[in-house]
Design a protein that fits this description.
The chain is of the alpha+beta class and 88 residues long. Helix content is 43%, strand content 16%. The chain has a domain at 27-87. A two-stranded antiparallel ribbon has the order 1-2. Strands 3-4 form a two-stranded antiparallel ribbon.
């Protein structure tokens, strides 16, 4: 039976090649200005600008745990309003 590891709400198999997929797995740093922590998630540049975070790059935003949590809080109301507008 394979060992499983719980990582950010997703189950991933313990394989060396799975751990190194993408830039986040390779150890990219948070792209928010003034932060140098290790990134745990990557998000679209549209989401970064909608949340009002100042990013050092114009492409995908790589966020540490704290900045990702901040992004989710800021976008929650926007997504709720968008959902209500579509259904209403």
């Amino acid at each position: 039976m394979l060992d499983r590891k719980l990582c950010l709400g997703r189950r991933l198999e313990r394989r060396p090649e799975a751990a190194l997929m993408g830039r986040v797995g390779k150890g990219v740093r948070c792209t928010v200005t003034g932060c140098g922590e290790e990134a745990v998630r990557s998000v679209s540049p549209v989401d970064v600008s909608r949340a009002g975070l100042k990013s050092t790059s114009s492409g995908r935003g790589y966020l540490c745990k704290n900045h990702y949590k901040e992004l989710k809080k800021k976008l929650r109301k926007d997504k709720e309003l968008e959902r209500m507008r579509m259904t209403g």
